[in-house]
Write a structure and sequence with these properties.
alpha+beta, 11 helices, 10 strands, three-stranded antiparallel β-sheet, 381 residues, 16% strand
Length: 381
């Protein structure tokens, strides 16, 4: 059995290095889930607990993921095959590779995986054994709270996944550790918790073993299995980056989108104040009827009006500017959603607008295709 203290220190170091990345992941998650108060507390009034503008990040991510999701063609030919035996071997190998993809139901899971790739900047492909079927399976893992360690050659050295689960569910899964998981005043693993308390779990994998342990229970090891494969069966598709930080496509769009929502809120507030503004009347009016077809008798009808507040022209300009910034940040042209200006009447103009959109899809397919190729190689091994 390996020393859990060394592994825990190793995982803690990985998590400390990824603090900034994890904060970005949580921010973009809250923005897509419309949990705005977690990002900017107090920015939403009580009467409007949700934003009043469309979630541009969620819309752009879903649309890009749907365009990025189709699987590439699979061909295991290494060169020109001249003999009939070689052709049959390549055809059989291609069918086996395709079976790994089909049996893993990647066609169904790729839209979600591509969404993770765009939103969080990475997509891990986990190769796991299916003992019932006697073959490997490829599983897409959520990049949130996942930590990949590489060696100097760029190969995966270790893979760590952190998540939270209810104590009652963990006690049912691991009855031999139920007392330590639930805890009580007599155990050294921490204070007692009810069944609904969520506890943190860490799954660590390297070339030597798989280990599942609980940091909140004094690094209690729930499961340890030797890695007979001798490799970390993980292939990661990462977005191109200019430093050592993995960044999603929409990290910088959160605040312009919140500012746009704030401008819309102010517009609603100004409209409400204008509708409910008091009446300004001339001094000769003695009676003010308050019905739908009311008649006010006065010698100066032009003086009767609501004392409203007109929206300044700069406010509309600011809202239009924020809308353009959000569209520019998501890298989604108007033509991608069908919102094409009428002045563009040729296909050449539409192609020019879609040029950057098509490039990022081609780049994403190249990154994901490379990771899928490495995952299939791991399946063959």
């Amino acid at each position: 059995m390996r020393d859990i203290r060394n592994i825990a220190r190793r995982v803690d170091a990985l998590r400390r290095d990824a603090l900034e990345r994890d904060a970005r992941h949580q921010t973009i998650y809250d923005a897509r889930a419309q949990k705005i108060n977690n990002i900017a507390p107090g920015s939403l009034p009580d009467a409007w607990p949700r934003p009043v503008v469309a979630n541009a990040i969620d819309t752009a991510a879903r649309q890009l993921a749907e365009n990025l999701a189709p699987l590439p063609s699979i061909n295991c030919a290494t060169g020109v095959m001249t003999s009939e035996r070689g052709k049959r071997f390549v055809a059989k190998k291609t069918k086996i590779a395709y079976s790994y993809v089909a049996d893993s139901k990647l066609k169904k899971h790729m839209p979600t995986g591509c969404d993770w790739y765009l939103t969080y900047g990475g997509l891990p492909f986990i190769v796991e054994p299916d003992f019932a079927a006697g073959k490997p399976r490829i599983r897409l893992d959520n990049p949130m709270k996942s930590y990949v360690e590489y060696d100097l050659a760029g190969n995966v050295r270790s893979y760590t996944k952190v998540w939270r689960e209810k104590a009652s569910q963990l006690a049912a899964k691991f009855p031999e550790h139920a007392q330590a998981i639930l805890g009580n005043s007599t155990t050294p693993f921490g204070r007692a918790s009810n069944g609904d308390t969520e506890l943190e779990l860490v799954k660590f994998c390297d070339a030597k073993s798989y280990i599942l342990y609980m940091p909140e229970r004094s690094n209690l090891v729930l499961m340890e299995t030797e890695n007979a494969f001798g490799k970390v069966p993980v292939a990661v598709a990462e977005k191109p980056k200019w430093d050592d930080q993995a960044r999603g496509q929409f990290d910088d769009v959160v605040w312009p989108m919140l500012a746009r929502n704030r401008m819309a809120m102010l517009g609603l507030q100004a409209t409400q104040q204008t509708v409910r503004a008091p009446l300004g009347i001339s001094p000769d009016v003695q009676r003010i009827p308050m019905r739908d077809v009311a008649v006010i008798r006065t010698n100066s009808p032009e003086k009767i009006r609501r004392v409203g507040t007109d929206m300044p022209q700069a406010a509309w300009q600011q809202e239009a500017m924020l809308e353009r910034e959000v569209a520019r940040g998501t890298r989604t042209p108007a033509s991608a959603t069908g919102d094409v200006d009428a002045s563009i009447i040729t296909g050449r103009g539409v192609d020019a607008l879609n040029g950057g959109y098509d490039i990022q899809i081609a780049t994403g397919q190249a990154m994901i295709g490379d990771a899928l190729e490495r995952a299939i190689e791991l399946c063959f091994e």
